[in-house]
Amino acid sequence: MPEAVLALEGLHKRFGALAATDDVSLTLRPGEIHALIGPNGAGKSTLIAQIAGSLRPDAGRVLLGGVDVTGESVAARARRGLGRSFQVSSLAEPLPAIRNVMIAVQALAGHSFRFWKPVARDPRLVEPAMAALERMGLGHRAATPVAELSHGERRALEVACALALRPRVLLLDEPMAGLGPEGSAHLTELLERLKAEVPILLIEHDMEAVFRLAERISVLVAGRIIAHGDGDTIRRDPQVRDAYLGD
Amino acid sequence: MSATLLLEQLINGLQLGTMLFLMASGLTLVFGVMGLINLAHGAFYMVGAYLTAAVTAASGSFLLGLAAGLSGAAAVGAVVELVVIRRLYHRPHLDQVLATFALILIFSEGTRWLFGSSPLWLNTPEWLAGHVPLPGGARYPLYRLVIIGVGIAVAVGLWWLITRTRLGMRVRAGESDREMIGALGIDISRLYTAVFALGAGLAGLAGALVGALQSVQVGMGEPVLILAFVVIVIGGIGSIKGALLGAVLVGVVDTLGRVFLPLAFRAVLPPAEATDVGAALASMLIYILMAVILAFKPRGLFAAHD
Amino acid sequence: MTDPTPALSARRPSRRLGRQGLVQLLLLALLLALPVAADLTGHPYYVTLASRLTLIAMAAVGLNLALGYGGMISFGHAAYFGLGGYVAGIGAFHAFDMTPFLGGIPGSDNLLVLWPIAMLACGLLALAIGAVSLRTSGVYFIMITLAFAQMVYYFANSWPTYGGQDGLPIYLRNQLPGLDTQEPLTFFLICFVGLVLAMALTSRLMGSRFGAALTMARLNDTRLATAGISPTPIRLVAFVISAMITGLAGALYADLNGFVSPSMLSWHLSGELMVIVILGGVGRLYGPLVGAALFIGMETLLGGLTEYWQLFLGLTLLGVVLFARQGVMGWLAGREPHA
């Protein structure tokens, strides 16, 4: 079995009496999509925050490419190749789409304490950003301010921003949220093509997309992973049907 | 360094802390409930002092003056909230800072226009002019002890208001969940006006009480306002408990520093230089205290809010 | 792959750029022409007034970098303005007195020595203040920058060597080799060059990678961190550069007035610098110049009519904040093209 690019080992996080993350371990292997599903309030956001680095776990480790990054900041993890998208899109609204992508390219192209050369005509920033936009079908919208993009375009732009980091791992937080059936289908196709290149940890509500895309599925309920396996295993698991699919 | 001097200075520090608490509690309430940063809070302090001085001079009664200062400042606060402040609740902090800075200019120049540039004087009323013996033989001004007493009474009153009354329940609801109290059908705009007027009244009370210790003049609220900022930054913005603790801490550290730092430097420097160095360092002491506390607790000692 | 350049520049409609560019050119030309005319017609007072306007604008250009472009609401920029002033004053004091500073460093009245020292001192102070203040954000940041500036103010007040609260006179304006700095027009031109350089630097900076990161730190710092760039060091460096520009303006300002006192450090001045940035238009290159012109204009005109002119300043400011957030540059030059 190939080595995991992302591994969570026994993560714990408590808020007062509430165990938001209760001994969570999972792995993401090269070339796969591993989906994390669970009902609202299961602790998905808390878990994502611990993977991305905006929240420190009380116990346990986060390994990225075999390196322990548990103590590292969001920015440091991003530099190690953790790309992510947000459930509620987190983009700079007044800026053109390409500027949102270029900032990720910029981090990759060295430090940002360069005070003189204009970025607008810097091919080392513009070209990779353009390429990422085009992969997500947004090439023609490069110069459009984010505020004028449609919801679907924003979701795609989020992914483009993550891709521009040339990530080793993608962490996608409900990328289908709010997309119509057509938008979902389109994005599903894109992700399917993407996974050969970048393994994806997919947090998603859209079950159709999850069962189609994911090699493995983990089910999070009340902070614990109650089931784990391929699509068929999960569909048949009585506990999952009880806690989640049954409702 | 005698024990009597230390005791005397401790009480002085406590008195300064009391004034700061009266200012800071209003600021921190307004921030905690409405999310507003109000630079013009010092203007209510000034309004309280001027009204007290003017009414005391006209009527001959300090108590009447005090009542006028307190209620006048609260009334001015209510009017300011209705006319200006309520347009700022949903604005960014920058707008709040600028608009309330504009209010400072308007209040300061308006007061100068009405009362002139020369300070007013307000004497301690005779029945409070006496001294109280301290252990060790020194005597301490009764009036300053009364100020401390008022501060304690206000602290107890605020605690009672917030934990035991309907208004307080609404205030606490406002701190934790603004949408919820809207959903409960509580008239939020009346609540906000009341909280703002309460804060303004407490600032006015502080100004009125201090008016009898110092001259009453334009701009008198500003140094106190900035100290009150230090207090709530230390205590944690939005927390009354933090304001109380921060106020006492700042009052005592500032007062003791000014007296004892120059004395301490005499051990290592010639007297004239020791006084200079000590005084300069003492003036920076509370800011250094603030920096140290922030280095460990960026949200203050009792952070109630993000 | 399609060439992205036309798409990018399409976001800058040439009509707007043209209007904004025209307004900007006109403003600079006016600022240069008026004092020259005043000097030729023998009105040195107006030359000095123009120098004052230029330096206040330059101080505000510094603040604009932190406040407008970086979104850091510093309520303590008077600390750097005043510190710059004190460097000029203390250098002149020791040069005049022939006494050493801190027991060993000789005084100097050479501006080529004093300016770098002023900027260095302000940069270091801003580094210390910024390092603590940037641990926080929002209202905390506003209050803490204010409090630290107040600390510097009280320190200057209670330190008697350099005049304490009475301030420190600069008997002879500090020297620049080959120029007569006492000559009002010459000194104005020095200030003018300083302002233009500060604005050019800001413009260049904001177009660079650093500027892109700073813009993202202001608009969405989560996005910046997710892209792998830590926001705090970016902000801190911008804060330091901002303080250095304001400090240089302060050094020139002390020389203009022949005097430096704690009033250059006062929180009122911090507030006024913010007001100037806002009146002109936040985060616009020419906003500080327009704001300073308005401020000095109101002070000169209204101040001549009534002692209470700040009352009207307050009312104007209140009106602008409540009803006209784009500032005057927004009104003059149209909406900011976001590039």
Explain how this protein is built:
Chain A has 9 helices and 10 strands. Chain A has helices at 44-52, 74-79, 97-108, 123-135, 151-164, 181-194, 207-213, 231-236, 238-245; strands at 6-15, 18-28, 33-37, 59-64, 67-68, 82-85, 169-173, 200-203, 216-221, 224-229. In chain A, helix 3 (97-108) packs parallel to helix 5 (151-164) and helix 4 (123-135) crosses helix 5 (151-164). Chain B has 306 residues and is mainly α. A two-stranded antiparallel ribbon of chain B has the order 1-2. The longest helix of chain B is centred in the first third of the chain and has 32 residues, at 3-34. The model of chain B has no long low-confidence stretch (mean pLDDT 87). In chain C, helix 2 runs antiparallel to helix 3 (44-69) and helix 12 (287-305) packs antiparallel against helix 13. In chain C, a hairpin with a 3-residue loop joins strand 1 and strand 2. Chain C has helices spanning 4-9, 14-40, 44-69, 78-97, 111-133, 138-158, 184-207, 209-219, 221-226, 231-257, 267-280, 287-305, 309-323, 327-333, and strands spanning 100-101, 105-106, 168-169, 259-260. In chain C, the strands form 2 sheets. In chain C, strands 1-2 form a two-stranded antiparallel sheet. Chain C is globular. Chain C has one domain (20-333). Chain C has 339 residues and is an all-alpha fold. Chains in contact: A-C, B-C. The B-C interface holds B 31, 37, 39, 84, 87, 93-95, 97-99, 101-106, 108-110, 112-113, 222, 226, 229-230, 232-233, 237, 276, 279-280, 282-284, 287-288, 290-291, 294-295, 298-300, 306 and C 67, 73, 75, 132, 135-136, 138-140, 142-144, 146-148, 150-151, 154-155, 157-161, 267, 271, 274-275, 278, 282, 307-311, 313-315, 317-318, 321-322, 325. Chain B: Belongs to the binding-protein-dependent transport system permease family. LivHM subfamily.
Question: Quick summary of this structure?
Answer:
The complex is a heterotrimer of chains A (247), B (306) and C (339). Chain A has 247 residues and is an alpha/beta fold. Chain A is 36% helix and 24% strand.
Fill in the keyword field for this structure:
heterotrimer; B: 306 residues; two-stranded antiparallel ribbon; 11 helices; C: 339 residues; mainly alpha; two-stranded antiparallel sheet; 14 helices; 2% strand; globular
